[in-house]
């Protein structure tokens, strides 16, 4: 409820109205308190007031009891007592509904809320997947390669395709990025599979959320209340907290600088804020602190809602200047120390002990400290929080579905699309590489077959040449042998002729010698015979014959 230029939140015991200046709402705030102390009512009163100012609101509905803002509140005995207590009769307080739109990451209890892998980025995605430092570095390398290759990462199948591509080509990127272990890639793939089994794959896709759609107004000019159904999402704390942090990042990157404004451009309520900081690495905590510190200049106010103010890291808590502290319970020294720390973070009021007051607050009561016109923390005040003007509690599914389908944004986000992205591109590239490999293999096989044919032909040619050579050698050998036989025959013929001639000569000589020896023998015989008579003739003939043979023998021997 807005009164006297302030967001009227509650009254002190003496009837003073305590409220938040709209111009200071983008200095951020904290709503803390134990379960059942009234944090949800406070959140609703603030959200309704911002909507009345024409400021869009985003809030996470963890328990489902914020959905009732689409319907007017109902009169009850308790509500009438509260109206009388605050003196709201005749002040313009009335029950009415607020313009709202329901969102759901899973698309079951609101319009499907999506973003793309590329828009999420490696740092936030690594948190969702629960990756260690080395795996996170590999994921960062993957995003860089995707950018260099102009590959759009839309959904988880694109991410898986890119991981498999990186694994297949890791040697190609080793020199530039160092060793990329297959085991690390396999671990990331398992984390992606686990995310898909949890339904996280529904969050990544097209059409992606246009963050500017959060800045719509209702037909009456009041700010639209964007309600994220988080009943199922909060069961996956990493996805829940990282998604809300992504939205803050998108707001920071999308909105222009506006400096100090009379009222914020949007207010963001982050319920179960401890989930954002639990187990968050220092790099992520630094990013959260940076966004919270700088987004103020974009005209965005952030309110963290949590059970214990100590859940918020000191660097972030220092940026939360508007504080609403509901009752805390402290039964141990450690818990009492936390209460004192919460009290010391607020400007003290000399009229009461802040720590003691926080411990004794009833349901619907709070100790608050808001910034004044000069941006200085106001003195802590103990107040009773106003009742909301919209319905308390959940709504029926049929009513929820009606609100969803009546939204002007329903047709934009109702049907998912599957654009041509990394998966399709790498699939085509894989088919092309396969076709090229098959072609190269076919050409290699053909070349191998041709080489075998050429080798066989060369072998046959060599075999034929060798056979021809052997045949020629045989012919030459036969010719040579025939020549040698002819020469030998000629030699034998010549030798025979020479022998024949020699024999003839010998016969002639023998004949001549016989004649000569006979003549000599006869002559010798005659001489001897003449001397010795008949006996001497015979002896002379024998001597002459022997002499003749001796002469012949000597002649033929020579």
Q: What is the H/E order?
A: EEEEHEHEEHHHHHEHEHHEHEHHEEHHH
On the 0-100 scale, what is the average pLDDT? 87
Low-confidence stretches: none
Number of helices: 16
Distance between the termini: 167 Å
What is the general shape? rod-shaped
Q: Round the Cα radius of gyration to an integer and report it.
A: 59 Å
Quote the beta fraction. 5-15%
Strands, count? 13
Largest sheet: 13 strands, mixed
What does this structure look like?
- It is a single chain.
- The mean pLDDT is about 85.
- The chain contains 16 helices and 13 strands.
- The radius of gyration is 59 Å and the shape is rod-shaped.
- Strand 2 (about 5-10) and strand 3 (about 15-20) form a beta hairpin.
- About 55% of the residues lie in helices and about 10% in strands.
- Strands 1, 2, 3, 4, 5, 6, 7, 8, 9, 10, 11, 12 and 13 form a 13-stranded mixed sheet that branches.
- The chain has about 550 residues and is α/β, with parallel strands linked by helices.
- About 35% of the residues are buried.
Task: Name some characteristics of this structure.
558 residues, alpha/beta, 13 strands, 53% helix
Compose a concise summary of this entry.
It contains 16 helices and 13 strands. It is rod-shaped, with a radius of gyration of 59 Å. Strand 2 (6-11) and strand 3 (17-20) form a beta hairpin.
Helix and strand topology:
Blueprint: E1 2-3, E2 6-11, E3 17-20, E4 29-32, H1 39-52, E5 57-61, H2 77-86, E6 100-104, E7 111-112, H3 117-129, H4 133-148, H5 156-168, H6 170-177, H7 182-197, E8 225-229, H8 237-254, E9 266-270, H9 274-277, H10 282-294, E10 300-306, H11 314-317, E11 322-325, H12 333-344, H13 354-359, E12 365-369, E13 381-385, H14 397-406, H15 410-413, H16 422-557
Helix pairs in contact: 3-4, 3-8, 4-7, 5-7, 5-16, 8-10
